[in-house]
Amino acid sequence: MDALGTLFGDISSVIWGPFVLIPLLLGTGLYLTIRLGGLQFFKLAAALRLGLLKRKDADAEGDISQFQALTTALAATVGTGNIVGVATAIGIGGPGALFWMWVTGLLGMASKYTEAYLGVRYRGTDAAGEKSGGPQYYLERGIKGPFGKFLALFFAIAATLACFGIGNMTQGNSIALNLENSFSVAPWVTGVVLTVLSIAVLVGGIKSIGRVTAGFVPVMIVFYVAAAIYILVANVGGIPAAFATIFTDAFTGTSAVGGFTGSAIIIAIQYGVARGIFSNESGMGSAAIAAASAQTTHPVRQGLVSMTQTFIDTIIVVTCTGLVIITTGTWNLIDEATGEQISAALMTGQAFTHGLPGEWGHWIVTIGLVMFAFSTILGWSYYGERNIERLFGRKLVMPFRVVFSLVVYVGCTTELTAVWNFSDMMNGLMALPNLIGLLILSGMVARETRWYLKHDPKLEASKAQIEDFMIDRPGWAEWKAGDVVGSSRNRGAHEA
What we know:
By secondary structure, this protein is an all-alpha fold. The chain has 21 helices and 4 strands. The protein has helices at about 1-15, 20-35, 40, 45-55, 65-75, 85-95, 95-120, 135-140, 145-185, 185-200, 205-235, 240-250, 265-280, 285-290, 300-325, 345-355, 360-390, 395-415, 415-455, 465-470, 475-480, and strands at about 125, 130, 335, 340.
């Protein structure tokens, strides 16, 4: 197992190194930002209003509301990456890594918009009458010929494997270790409870997941952010210095201080981008799967709603975690027992404990990590089942839900160093075909986005008004009609 973990780690280092995914992710995000005219900046307020206040389009096709699709995607992304991942990035890459997480998030909003647009644009209806879409479909349907089909199948296989890593065992393992260290709960007990809870939610499919995530995801985010804001207000004098440290370190690297290992600029960039993607998943294509299930009257509208997911995840939650770690001085805290920097697993907990009275900090991080990680399990189960359906058809969806729930127990009770490295590797392998597809299909997305926003700049058009100005657009009639997906006889590329 150690040898396998080392192999996965070596492959992951190449994929996430300075010559493969990092330039591709940042370059794609920058290119899409330019093609879309800075959409994520100029339409953010309207997108937040549409997703958080209006929440759904009346009389629209789909399985769950736009708000539920957003919370399902947030459930999958707001996980251990927002607590442990941020600490890892800062602990290894220095405070400057937070700056590169911001860059990844801001540019990633354009990528998230594009993949969500495509998820809705090329979605179809499966044998159970549910909407199904994502890179496993739009890569094949949007890019004609063998290359598009290859990219789609490559993504589907990578996503199916990844869901058991990033979306299952690593999350269960984090919950089990946290509860064992905090309350001496045996890992097997945590495993049994999580397995039962997972089965109870997942057997109901996307509608059940949507109801659950819409109920507790907003609560857990507000709960965590409120605690972070309390700490930042109490340490308001240190915030300017924290920002100065972040921006300086992003371009100069951190010199060695005590037991803290100095980091070069490339390390700050590498860990900032890698942990940023682990947190917000922009460019991975996963959120497009949730977006495809949304009740929406046009792909542009759901694309904008999905775009806010990255803003909430990175610009709000990640920033809160990072600033708390830096303003409290925990990022370079030395463990007296070892003489070395404290581990990332302890860093966020120490920061909140230092910033809040009594045991509140410990409770906030413990409860937050448990809720964030469990929500990730729910969101990623849906991503996994949609790719299982793409590869094998609808008949394996229910068995997958049961197996996925049982694997949570394995994650809770097993040492997972190899699985963490495997997760990083599979995340990268998911992103590669998706990013290629986003670049190839970007022209169509930009063109159709401009057309829609020309006629509905405030996102207030009714379904009838949208149909009136879209009636002659290429592919509109096919999109409204949908088609059957999930079986081999309907997997051929076609114009949608």
